[in-house]
Amino acid sequence: MPNRRQFTQIATTTLAATTAAIPVVSLTACTPRESQSAVATITSDFMKNLEGDIKAWDAIANHRTGTDGDDETGTWLQAEATALGFVAKQTHFELNRIEPQLAQLTIGETTITGSPLFDCTYTGAEGVSGVLGRDIAVLPFQPFDGHPQTRSLQAARRSERYKAIIALASADIVAPGLAVMNAEDFRAPVGPPVLQVASEHSELLRAATERSARATLIAQITQVPDRASNVQVHVPGSNPNLAPLVIMTPRSAWFTCTAERAGGIAVWLAALRAFARKPPKRPVILWANSGHELSHLGLDDALHASPTLARNAHAWVHLGANFAAAVGEVRLQASSAELMDQLVEKFARHGAQVDQQGEPLSRPLGEARNIFDSGGRFISILGSNRLFHHPQDRWPDSVDLPKTRAIAIALLAAIDELANA
Predict the structure, then answer these.
(1) Which domain-ending residue is among 201, 224, 247?
(2) Can you give the three-state secondary structure of the chain, one letter per residue?
(3) pTM of the full predicted structure?
(4) Which CATH number goes with the domain that contains 15?
């Protein structure tokens, strides 16, 4: 895998090709106003760079908050923005990074390895022992926070009924293996030790629970004082007195998580390149935030540093998870019916996939919820993914590139309209 310096060189080389003088080819029918827009008219190099950005993300194997891969991602994105001539910086926030030491379940002579939740309590090396089904629960889950199985697991964590819990990954939606859960209570861990284990252990655990087998669960970790960063880019507007547009995307994940995160990163970079070709009317702030999987640590820190921005920005664009996935639905969200109608119109015009529309005025999924809670205006995109939070979410198999291209064009058209309103 390229080191950090090599990634900076790659970013600079890619950028030089992007901004070179090339013929502009309109890929879709545009309105007269859009035909003059550097966002809505797409070059052939844009399409190459969309794929290149996804591959660059995939080349960094670990994007977990505070790791070397997370740092490398921040350096790459800052280099891309700086080379375009924008003011880009990384703002840091503190955290105790969790490093699992021993995470396993022992039943007789059988040992199953897994991963602890990052927002529970933990054991020492001796672990917790008890009877499966009575003292140690075995509960299925999906990596999606809103799934009924996951909600039942979360309720069991708070019930104080069990000494420990085995969270068994369900194969109903995700591929076989271990797709982990986000740590929504990272700031204030709750409940007993929880060990996440892969779906292929389901039959063994079912049989052991039926015979009330004794087991020992170990979830031993160390906490490492560390820091992570958000990348922030400021694009000047021709009218600096206008309220800014804010474009945000998470840039951390449990594993590589390419279909989950790289679509948002690629559109974020595409918007920057478009603004370099044709500056917007109003100022634009672009955030690429770490801490996503740890209850949105990075976004919370950024909003704390700019306490009035959530409400006072002209609008927010949330480039969320999974819209690049080869297998998955696409969901649009907006803070008002007017913004939803504008977004849906862009997707229809450019032939981009939409499967669900969130109800305006209802609390949305993903980072858009932080803006909703602060009373801000937003549009948002996210979706489902068969490989959500799974190590196999990798290029090229997990990504639908034609689907992502169409969505990117629709999103850039919506961004152009908001940035020039």
Answers:
(1) 224
(2) CCCHHHHHHHHHHHHHHHHCCCCCCCCCCCCCCHHHCCCCCCCHHHHHHHHHHHHHHHCCCCCCCCCHHHHHHHHHHHHHHHHCCCEEEEEEEEEEEEEEEEEEEEECCEEEECEECCCCCCCCCCCEEEEECCCEEEEEECCCCCCHHHHHHHHHHHCCCCCEEEEEECCCCCCCCCCCCCCCCCCCCCCCCEEEECHHHHHHHHHHHHCCCEEEEEEEEEEEEEEEEEEEEEECCCCCCCCCEEEEEECCCCCCCHHHHHHHHHHHHHHHHHHHHCCCCCCEEEEEECCCCCCCHHHHHHHHHCCCHHHHCCEEEEECCCCCECCCCEEEEECCHHHHHHHHHHHHHCCCCCCEECCCCCCCCCCHHHHHHCCCCEEEEEECCCCCCCCCCCCCCCECHHHHHHHHHHHHHHHHHHHCC
(3) 0.89
(4) 3.40.630.10
